[in-house]
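Hi there, hope your week has been kind to you so far. Thanks so much in advance, here it is.
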Amino acid sequence: MKPANTSNFHENNGHGKTTVLEKESPEDSLTAPKVEEHSSQATEKQQKPTPPKRKKQIPLILAALGVGALAAGGFGYRWWQYASTHQQTDDAQVAGHIHQISSRIPGTISQVLVNDNQLVQQGQLLVKLDPKDYQSKVQQAEAALASARAQAEAAQANIGLTSETSNAQTKQAQGNVNAAVAALSTAQAALQQAKAEIPTAQAQVRSATAAVTAAKAQVAQAQANLQKAQADYNRYQTLYQEGAIPRQQLDTAKAAYDVALAQKNTATAGVQQAIAQLAQAKQEVAKAIAQLAQAQQGVASARAKLAASKGALQQATASKQDTKVKSAQYDAAKAAISQAEAALRDARLQLSYTNITAPASGRVGKKTAEVGNRVQAGTPLMAIVNDNNWIVANFKETQLENIKPKEPVEIKLDAFPNHTFKGYVDSISPASGAQFALLPPDNATGNFTKVVQRVPVKIVFDPDSIKGYESRIVPGMSAEVSVKVK
């Protein structure tokens, strides 16, 4: 039977469960010696089945509870100690370099040289496009470059020829201009001289005319003196014959007559000489007028030659301008060469794009390229994923207080639950994940609700801890990380 004074109580076993225990009453402890005294009687009754004493189970239960409490306390202490020195999150994924392979030019795929999940090396040929169209463009660019170079050579030759010709023409035309200027100066001087000689000759004519008039006056005077002398001589001759006068007077009259005759002859000769001088003066005037006309003609001819020489000089100068034009054409031809060379380089570059190579070492994934496909520039063909992976763990902002770069990290991947990887904190994102979202949240509203934000933390694997797993760890795997903080 159950003692009447035994009471029940509840005890927490440290795991949130309640165990009902029975408490022994003081009367049971007082009656214990009596049980020992009557042990013989109990021996006699051993053959009769008796129910187990519950009081014998209490120490075992208490011991179990004590052990459980100690274990729970130790576990709780260790958990508290671990939680106080570590920050954990299961919002983490493996990230890595994924190189999207696409074509830079439109074309038709002629060869695909890799398969899905194949390991490739940097620079390895992945896909070939049909190069015929681009080879034709290269040939056209080479032909255009050859044509431009030929035009440049022709323009350069024309420059030399035109320059030599124009220089010779310019020198000759300049000499003709100088000679024409000198001839014009000479003709103008002769013209001035001829103009100056005309008044002199005219003055001589006037002087000769006056001399003729004076000579005629002398002739008239001499004629009058001769008539008087002849009359006196005739009268004295008659008187002498009559014996009225002596011979001496007759001789004197005769001498006076001879003198008057001589003076008349002299005056007549003077008139002839003055007339001759007048005629000569008139000839000088005519000569001066003729020289003036000749000088005027010489000036006109010199001016005409000067104008012609200047025209030739202008033509020669125009030829020099033609040289400049030829030089400009040569410069344009050189520019055309540069343009053709650039076009050729571009055509060769476009041709090189028909060979699509791996930008980095890794494994092929998401291959969509097939022989015969027509692709445009930027069409995705496949992706290259290399083995340089890391972890992006999104910690709550309340967990970042003690997380710093170089802190050690324990990493558990869902793909390998029985293996713990090592790593360290590399860096912390400069903004929360929400800020990098396509539509960042706008909290400037009246119904704002505070939400704990998550900040991406980059964690790098320890190379020694992932040996043998390099090719098995791939981007996108889920992970749990625990950062040991101080």
Remarks:
- The chain has three domains: 7-84, 85-130+360-484, 135-335.
- The longest strand covers residues 86-102.
